[in-house]
Design a protein that fits this description.
653 residues; 6-stranded parallel β-sheet; binds FE(4)-NI(1)-S(5) CLUSTER with Oxygen; 16 strands; single chain
């Protein structure tokens, strides 16, 4: 058993530390305890275990001695083939998760457009028109309703498409599209690529690690430029494209005198409706009769990002805080849908009055209450969920309530369209000012820092060290997922965080009034980062492809298979992508070398791994500088000295 760390060494989040002490006192086990009690299997962690057939599992750890013959599986599969297959299957699972989310959204969107389900409508007609153009529809002669139906049908069809190319691929820079075609990476249909990847990694099929990696890219691109992009776009049309909004974050958003409902998971189809009906006068009245002053809805994990971005609904916490939120004793219902829901929460809830309510037929949990979300009757399903929470308020044990005070303010809602308006102004919205400031060196480069929290690392810490180092070096940060929440908790999502920036980036943030870390949404919204990168390329002056931009991506504390799918679509889109915590191919030197060094020559993007956040920043900045040099803008950066004239210049932008 590994040694148990001091609580202060487990997390840098004050509220999490506070609740861990309470959990310890009350004998409530958390993910942090389980992480201390169980080490990861070293063979599996390195990708060196093949369990794809009944003759195994075959364990092929790397040879210990130089010159020793490498082990192979019973079928003769080499170490690199086994590692590539394991890696590819993570991509397939991650793509399936995002894409099934997208499919659900597309199905509801189509039903809503057909007028078959009350409660959902069209909030962003502009974006609907854009999608109509993407699908080559006759937008001029169709009514909004007709257009929505046709867009819905086209989006649903992208999942089952068998031939051709996914439509959103043509949004990418032309050079990238040509590269995808040249290397046969362009996905034909979303489901097809997942199925083919699962087939190819079955025992005795694709034995060539490079070929497996290419199909994994085709699958991952079907996520980023397919399923996840459909999810983001249709959610924006139905629920509104985010604009900057303020909100609060951390366990301190729970209220002692109100009914607390936490919506946890990923699909805003459920959480949006819970937010809407929580203000229903009848339910508010019911809450009063139970002695509560109101109904407080707060989000957890990526669904939290969705409702924060669109409604300013508070976030109670990120992935590793789910058990601790329940341990406050003040959660009347935790409503879950899919992904990142720890099975342990039901056991935690049994120590309190908290009801765990599952809502998806795809994700049930023993012991939980199941109220299946019926999109045909979304409002009344949401009412039933909220009513169950309100009724449960009287079951609280006041002596067990421990809500930490810590909460922070933040600004979120930076869709790529918003960045356009903010930087370019209402009358000439464009990415030009951003490009100009990259070219003149006030902004050294762009970093996407995204992903999860991993219980094997000090919670939140790696993200924050990495991001602060990037800011200090004038690298603007785009963020999503649980990393965005870590930033929110630490005050990095406010304009005041300009104090962490180098002089160039600080001057931009001060002039425009934006935080230096832009919260762009949930993990499916990493597609917004793809679109922002594409917009920068199309604006001109920074090369013809995403791979030429002074930009880099990182997921310092990833844990989900979705993160591997995201990483692989960024790499296949031309981005240098650096993961922290652990890397699932390290057992095979040959395969890892291919991912870290071999891919770049063909795809322009590559993978890398680094656990130390300062070294991570160093590597990302070195990559950014290499790209600046190739673009011939490295000299411009050396000339930057922010004098008064330059500041006036900037203000005129
Ligand atoms: O899609 S996977 S831990 S980052 S919440 Fe958080 Fe889970 Fe990671 Fe978002 Ni999602």
């Amino acid at each position: 058993m590994a040694k148990k760390e001091k609580i202060e060494n487990l997390t840098c989040c004050e509220a999490t530390q506070h609740m861990l002490k309470i959990a310890e006192k009350q004998g409530i086990e958390t993910v942090f305890d389980r992480a201390a009690a169980m080490r990861p299997c070293p063979i599996g962690a390195d990708g060196s275990c093949c369990k794809n057939c009944g003759m195994g599992p075959c364990r092929v750890p790397p040879s210990k001695k130089e010159g020793e013959p490498a082990k192979v599986g019973l079928c003769g599969a080499t170490h690199e083939t086994i590692t590539a297959r394991n890696f590819a299957r993570m991509v397939a699972a991650g793509t399936a998760a995002h894409s099934d989310h997208g499919r659900g959204v597309a199905g509801v969107f189509l039903l809503a457009a057909q007028g078959k389900i009350p409660g959902y409508g069209i909030k962003d007609e502009q974006k609907l028109l854009q999608l109509g153009l993407d699908f080559d529809l006759d937008v001029e002669n169709l009514s909004i309703k007709e257009l929505a139906i046709q867009v819905g049908e086209k989006c649903v069809a992208q999942f089952g498409q068998q031939e051709g190319e996914l439509v959103f691929l043509k949004r990418a820079p032309l050079k990238r599209q040509e590269l995808w075609r040249k290397y046969k990476l362009a996905p034909r249909g979303i489901d097809r690529e997942v199925v083919e990847l699962m087939h190819r990694t079955h025992m005795g099929v694709d034995q060539d690690y490079k070929n497996i990696t290419a199909q994994a890219a085709r699958c991952a691109l079907a996520d980023g430029w397919g399923g996840a992009m459909i999810a983001t776009e249709l959610q924006d049309i139905m629920f509104g494209t985010p604009v900057p909004v303020t909100g609060n974050i951390n366990l301190g958003v729970l209220k002692a005198d109100e009914v607390n409902i936490i919506v946890h998971g990923h699909e805003p189809l459920v959480s949006e409706m819970v937010v809407v009906v929580s203000q229903d006068p009848e339910l508010l009245e019911l809450a009063k009769t139970k002695g509560a002053k109101g109904i407080n809805v707060a989000g957890m994990c990526c669904t939290a990002n969705e409702i924060l971005m669109r409604h300013g609904v508070p976030i109670v916490g990120n992935f590793l805080q789910q058990e601790l939120a329940i341990t406050t004793g003040a959660v009347d219902a935790m409503v879950v849908d899919v992904q990142c829901i720890m099975q342990a929460i039901q056991k935690t809830a049994e120590n309190f009055h908290t009801k765990i309510i599952t809502t998806s037929p795809k994700a049930m949990m023993e012991g939980a209450t199941h109220i299946e979300f019926d999109e045909h009757d979304a409002i009344s399903t949401a009412q039933n969920i909220v009513r169950a929470a309100v009724e449960n308020y009287t079951q609280r044990d006041k002596a067990k309530i421990n809500i930490p005070t810590a909460k922070a303010e933040m600004v979120a809602g930076f869709s790529h369209e918003t960045i356009n308006y903010l930087l370019g102004g209402t009358f000439r919205s464009s990415y030009k000012p951003l490009n100009d400031n990259i070219i003149n060196g006030r902004i050294r480069g762009i970093a996407g820092v995204v992903g999860c929290n991993n219980a094997r690392d000090k919670d939140d810490e790696t993200h924050l060290i990495l991001i602060k180092e990037l800011l200090k070096n004038d690298v603007i940060v785009l963020t999503t997922g649980c990393v965005a929440m870590a930033c929110g908790k630490a005050g990095l999502l406010t304009p005041e965080a300009a104090k962490y920036c180098g002089p160039g980036l600080a001057s931009i943030c001060e002039t425009v009034g934006i935080p230096p870390v832009l919260h762009m949404g949930a993990c499916v919204d990493n597609t917004r980062i793809l679109m922002a990168a594409t917009a920068v390329v199309k604006e001109g002056g920074l090369g013809d492809d995403i791979s030429e931009l002074p930009a880099a991506g990182a997921a310092p504390g990833w844990m989900s298979e979705k993160a591997i799918a995201i990483g692989h679509y960024f790499v296949a889109s031309g981005v240098y992508t650096l993961f922290g915590s652990t890397f699932p191919t390290l057992g095979s030197k040959k395969y890892t070398d291919y991912l870290f060094n071999g891919l770049e020559e063909e795809w322009g993007g590559k993978w890398d791994f680094e656990q130390d956040p300062l070294k991570m920043a160093e590597k990302m900045i070195a990559h950014i500088d290499k790209k600046r040099e190739a673009l011939g803008i490295d000299k411009a950066r050396e000339r930057v000295l922010m004098d008064m004239e330059m500041r006036r210049d900037l203000e005129a932008v």
